[in-house]
Amino acid sequence: MFERFTRDAREVVQGAVEHGRREGLRSVGAEHLLLALLDREASRASFALAALGLADRKESVREALEGARRRAGLSRAEADALAGLGIDVTEVVARVEEVHGAGAMSGDHRERGWWSGRRSFGRDAKGVLEGALRAALDRRDRHIGDEHILLALTVRAGVPAEVLADHGVTYESVRRVLYGRGTAQAG
């Protein structure tokens, strides 16, 4: 599938792997794809994010992703559902971190001992990449670009979509900026 990726999309995937490596994680998640998109400049996705006002709020997105990681990757909707069952996620995180240290509930195995060193893609990241393929096919685009990865992030349920929506970036707003039907159009 990666042979169909544009240079920008490949760089997003490589950037996601690098984010995972820097965090010392063995697998790449959807949030790493979002972080890699935030790092991009002069691409279709970076244009869309800038047009939607996210260029000035990248740090806010990073902080929101970090907060979700500390909650074991639970979205706000999942935390609210647990609260409905009487489980206070904030309290659980505080108690676990009190015993095991900050970030103990990050949800991935940190590098410990021997392993091949090759990072795999988690189910959520694979789902985003598959969604990017579907987005490209829906548009009859020959290649998968970083804009397709962004579109896929906005529709796949989970923390990245929630964080993007909280910052005003939705499927419809991205589509409008990229393909018209609004005031701004990607070039």
Automatic annotation (TrEMBL):
Keywords: Repeat. It holds the Pfam family Clp_N. InterPro entries: Clp_N_dom_sf, Clp_R_N. This is Peptidase. Gene3D superfamilies: Clp, N-terminal domain (1.10.1780.10). It comes from the Bacteria. The keyword Phosphoprotein does not apply. The keyword Membrane does not apply. Residues 2-187 form the Clp R domain.
